[in-house]
Amino acid sequence: MRYPLPVLFICGLAFAVPSPSGHVVFERRQVEPHGWVQSRRLEGDFMLPMRFGLIQNNLDHLDDMLMAVSHPDSAGYSKHWSATDLVEKFKPTTQTIEEVVRWLVESGIPHDRLALSINRGWIHFNATTAEVEELLKTEYYVFTHEDSGVEQITRMEKHIDLIMPTVHFNHVPSPMVQRKRTGGLGALESQPGPHRVEEDVTVIPTLAKCDMLITMECLRALYNIDHTPVATEKNSFGIVEFTPQTYVGSDLDLFFENFSSTQVGTRPQLVSIDGGELQTDPSKQGFKYAAESNLDLQYAMGLTNPQTITLLQTGDDVIGGSFNTWIDAVDKSYCPLNDPVLDPVYPDPSGYNHPPSCGIISPPKVVSISYGQDEASVTTRYANRQCNEYAKLGMMGTSVFYSSGDYGVAGNYGNCLFTHCPTGKIFNPSFPSGCPYVTSVGATQINNGSTVHDPESACQRIIYSGGGFSNIFSVPKYQSAAVHTFMTDQTPPYSSSLYSNDGKSRGFPDVSANGANYVIAIGGKFATVYGTSASSPVFASMISLINDARLAQGKNSVGFINPTLYSDKFTSAFNDITTGGNPGCGTKGFNATIGWDPVTGLGTPKFRELLAQFLSLP
């Protein structure tokens, strides 16, 4: 495996020129993203596609509205919203639009260059670098990625929620794409170290070897998964992949030949987002490019057979995709005009030369994403804007799962944030796992010599379950009691100089599933892989099966499940994991303990009890 060259962190994090009277600092990055270096000032005549996200109406009621359809004690449980109702409820006010337009015009941007998105959420215009720098009283620079050489540009408060492009690093190459090429958060790697792979494994399906080789048979026995879908036409299950990560059909067939023979020849339903395509280049069908997608699909398809899996293949092979781009495809209210204003920028003359994919498919009832990035690589405004969209997906009845990471309390590549230059020891939480409106999934393992009937521990074989506390998001109401109990009864031995230890921050993961020794077919043979990349689709598969059972009874999907999972009546539906930890940043990290903890969350599922509890809800 080849890592990017080390990046030198810089003390002092001001990324805008001093603001004159009347201007305030709008956003800052917490740290410089790993692997990127500032190379030059952006040319003054460069044309920037500016996108101003307007403050949405009624966001102060967003949490309450989501809880009204998600909390098991609510009379409105599972009475989900339509996409049209959501747009109407949250569209910015006329006053907000008029105020921002007036400010832009008075600042020298002609009115005829301004465009308002259909959902009234964004104002778009093209402007030169010189115009934008004068407008925002800032400077734009070009950053270069050390490995790929790819370049990225980065850098009225009352009515503006987000300005793009400014200081975000979710553009090219996509953090998800780059990470999956070289290993990292939630990733799979082919060399010793985190996420080791053992190739050419001899597989003899037997429950006696589950401590060394995890198969679907092991998972079914471990979590008592015993439901066969019957309402597949009503149900939907999406797996998100970011180009160039794509599955290989012959590997799917090899896997199914051995573990689910009736599925040989079966493929996921491809939804191409911004030019996402399956890989046809033989040189890009090996472990480096196909392992993640092969893993996700082999287990999601196998565990939910005969449910059709929707593959949300995101981004072309030139630029790639980002979390925003898959959300755009399922949530039209998040999109701007059909214009190249999202990250990454489409149309792309050298790749997908069409408008961005916007609202091209209804959101699947369950979506699993085995990717993530360091929370420190995004700004607070950006993180909150995206997080609110996950809440809206929950209001429409979609459950969104993200893997929590594989480096314990550290971030991608084991990186930590710095206290004093030049060393870094501060815990580095993951995004979007820290968003309170997604379900973050950590990893467990069957200990050596143990069976599927013995207690698991936190994963400490090759990888460490990602977990900790967000530096951006506050603890949600549904989790406050769990976090309070953990902080009171366990009191981690670290000060506020290492992490947000006041008990007021969102903790993650929420739940866990096995993440060690997975047998996958890759490159025409079998290998074992490790990571929360496996845990997320496995847990999501169980929720998809639960949706199937509810739909068969004429009920709705479960939607956002966190308030339900944290409720007292669901305590018996989890195997509490009480051993192991998630070290990182020169510490032992946190410990798995009785109750919720920032290593394995609430624990691993007891599928039959989880199913029974969800079926008892309206």
What do these coordinates show?
With 618 residues, this protein is an alpha/beta fold. It has two domains: 1-56 and 93-167, no CATH class; 175-615, Rossmann fold. The protein has 14 helices and 26 strands. Strands 9, 10, 11, 12, 14, 18, 19 and 22 form an eight-stranded mixed beta sheet that branches. A hairpin with a 2-residue loop joins strand 23 and strand 24 (525-529). Helix 7 packs across helix 8 (287-304), helix 8 packs parallel to helix 12 (532-552) and helix 12 (532-552) runs parallel beside helix 14 (607-615). It is globular and about 75 Å long. Residues 1-29, 154-158, 167-194 and 337-342 have low confidence and may be disordered.
Write the topology of this structure:
Elements: E1 36-41, E2 47-54, H1 62-70, H2 83-90, H3 94-106, E3 115-116, E4 122-128, H4 129-136, E5 141-145, E6 151-154, E7 160-164, H5 175-182, E8 198-199, H6 216-223, E9 237-242, H7 249-259, E10 269-273, H8 287-304, E11 309-314, H9 323-330, E12 366-369, E13 373-374, H10 380-395, E14 399-403, E15 417-418, E16 424-426, E17 430-431, E18 439-445, E19 457-458, E20 468-474, H11 477-489, E21 505-508, E22 511-514, E23 518-522, E24 525-529, H12 532-552, H13 562-565, E25 574-575, E26 604-605, H14 607-615
Parallel strand pairs: 9-11, 9-12, 10-11, 12-14, 14-18, 18-22
Antiparallel strand pairs: 1-5, 2-4, 2-7, 3-4, 5-6, 8-24, 13-17, 15-16, 18-19, 20-21, 23-24, 25-26
Helix pairs in contact: 1-10, 7-8, 8-12, 12-14
